[in-house]
Write a structure and sequence with these properties.
Layout lengths: L3 H20 L3 H9 L4 H18 L3 H6 L3 H25 L4 H29 L5 H30 L1 H20 L17 H13 L3 H27 L6 H9 L2 H18 L1 H11 L13 H32 L6 H30 L1 H13 L29
C-alpha cells in the first residue's frame, strides 16, 4: 500500500534517528565506565534513574502535546535531544565532563523521547488513512530491527576506534537530520480544536483514564507493561551471567543478540500478511502468547558453543514473535484511541512502561544478588508464562456510560 510522500519523509526521519540511537547503544554506560571510571552502582543508577525521572518529568507533557500542532513539537523534541547530547562531547573536550551531567542528559533525553513518541503517534494517525496504519507500523518495526542489527556492531567499532563520545555525537546528528526530515513533510498542519488556554489538571490523567476504561485497550496495556518489564529486567542479569561465570567474550555476547534480531525484521515483514490471512486479532493473540514462552530457557544457559546457541535460539524465538506482535498492537492502539486523545494516551502508556521497567529491573538486580542470576532468570521466565491471560478481553463489557464519551471513537469490533 502506498502511503504518500508525507509519510515517506516521516519514515525517513524515523529511520535516521533510530539508526543513530542504535549506533549509540549503551554509550552512556560505556562513557560512565571507560571515561568516568564509574562503578557498578553508578552505572545501575544511571540506567534506572535517568529513565524513571525522565518518565515522571514527561507526565504533564501529554496534555501539552495533545492540543498543539504535532510537527513543531516533534521538531522541538529532536532539537532538544540533539543539543543535550552534544553537551557531552563538548564537555569532554573541555575536560569538565562529570557523572552528574551524564545523568542530567539521560533525564532530558528520556523526557524528550516520550514527548516525541506521543506527538509522532498522534501525527501518524492524522497523516495515514485508517486502512494504512498496520502498513505504517510494520514499516517502522522493520526499520527498528534493521537498525538493531546494524547499529550496535557499527557503533561498537566506532567507539573502539574513536571513543564512546563519537557515537553520542552521531546520535545527536541523527536527531538534527530527523528534525529536517519532519520539516520537509511540508503542508500546513491543522490546529487542534480545543486551544490550551486553560490547563486542566484532569487532562494529565486523561490518557490513563482512556486506557483503563477501554475493555479493548486495558488488557493490551497490562500485558505489554508486564511482559516488557520482565523481558528487560532479565537482560542485565543475563549479561552478568554470560560475561562473568560463563566466561563469554564480549564479541560472543554481542553475536548472541545481534543475529536473533534478524528474526525481528522477519516478524515485522510477516505481520501484515499473517493478519490479512488469519485475522488481526487472532495473530495478535498468537504472537502475544508466543513471545512469553521463550525466556524461561535462558535459565539453562551453559558455557561454550552450546550455551551460545541456547541464547541465540531463545532470543530468536522471542524477537521474531515480538516482531509480529509489535506492529499489530501499535496499529490496534492507534485505531482504538480517538484522535483527540492520542497524544495523552501514548504519553501515559510510555511513562508507565518506562517507570515500570526501571522499577522491575532494579528489583531483579536485587533478586539476582540474593538468589543468583539463574534463579532470577528462571523466576522472570515463569512469570512470563503466566502473562497470556492478560490479553483476554473481559466477557462482560462495561456500559457505554462507564467510559468517557468521544465523538471520534472508532468501532471496537473487527
Amino acid at each position: 500500500m502506498k502511503l504518500g510522500r508525507q509519510f515517506g519523509w516521516l519514515w525517513a526521519a524515523y529511520s535516521v534517528s533510530t539508526l543513530g540511537t542504535w549506533l549509540a547503544f549503551d554509550a552512556f554506560a560505556l562513557i560512565a565506565v571507560l571515561v568516568l571510571h564509574a562503578g557498578s552502582a553508578q552505572v545501575a543508577l544511571l540506567a534506572a534513574t535517568g529513565t524513571a525521572v525522565g518518565a515522571v518529568a514527561a507526565v504533564p507533557l501529554g496534555p501539552w502535546v495533545e492540543f498543539r500542532r504535532k510537527r513543531p513539537v516533534m521538531i522541538a523534541a529532536d532539537l532538544v535531544r540533539c543539543a543535550a547530547l552534544l553537551t557531552l562531547p563538548a564537555a569532554y573536550g573541555l575536560g569538565v565532563l562529570g557523572f552528574g551531567q551524564l545523568l542530567a542528559v539521560s533525564v532530558v533525553v528520556a523526557a524528550a523521547d516520550i514527548t516525541f513518541t506521543a506527538a509522532s503517534g498522534a501525527h501518524l494517525k492524522a497523516l495515514v488513512p485508517l486502512a494504512g496504519l498496520l502498513t505504517a507500523t510494520s514499516r517502522f518495526e522493520s526499520t527498528t530491527w534493521t537498525a538493531t542489527v546494524l547499529g550496535p556492531p557499527l557503533g561498537g567499532a566506532a567507539a573502539g576506534l574513536l571513543g564512546p563520545l563519537t557515537t553520542v555525537a552521531a546520535d545527536a546528528v541523527s536527531y538534527l537530520l530527523s528534525a529536517l526530515g519532519i520539516r520537509a513533510i511540508g503542508t500546513d498542519e491543522a490546529r487542534p480544536e480545543r486551544r490550551p488556554d486553560v490547563f486542566r489538571a484532569r487532562d494529565v490523567l486523561e490518557g490513563w483514564r482512556h486506557i483503563l476504561s477501554s475493555p479493548d485497550l486495558r488488557p493490551l496495556f497490562l500485558n505489554v507493561l508486564v511482559v516488557n518489564a520482565l523481558i528487560m529486567a532479565g537482560q542485565p542479569v543475563l549479561s552478568v551471567l554470560m560475561l562473568g561465570p560463563l566466561g563469554f567474550a564480549p564479541w560472543q555476547y554481542g553475536l548472541a543478540f545481534a543475529v536473533p534480531c534478524l528474526g525481528g525484521l522477519l516478524g515485522s515483514r510477516l505481520a501484515r500478511p499473517l493478519a490479512t490471512r488469519y485475522g488481526r486479532r487472532r495473530v495478535l493473540l498468537a504472537s502475544g502468547v508466543l513471545r512469553a514462552c521463550w525466556s524461561v530457557g535462558l535459565a539453562f544457559v551453559g558455557p561454550g558453543v552450546p550455551g551460545l546457541l541456547v541464547v541465540m535460539v531463545v532470543e530468536a524465538g522471542l524477537i521474531t514473535s515480538a516482531g509480529v506482535f509489535s506492529p499489530l498492537y501499535a496499529a490496534e492502539r492507534l485505531e482504538l484511541t480517538p484522535a483527540d486523545r492520542v497524544a495523552r494516551t501514548l504519553a501515559a502508556w510510555s511513562v508507565t512502561s518506562k517507570a515500570t521497567t526501571a522499577a522491575v529491573t532494579a528489583l531483579w538486580g536485587l533478586l539476582a544478588t540474593l538468589t543468583g542470576p539463574r534463579t532470577a532468570l528462571a523466576v522472570a521466565g515463569v512469570l512470563l508464562l503466566a502473562t497470556p491471560p492478560l490479553l483476554r478481553r473481559p466477557t462482560v463489557r462495561p456500559s457505554p456510560a462507564s467510559a468517557p464519551p468521544s465523538p471520534a471513537a472508532p468501532p471496537r469490533s473487527r
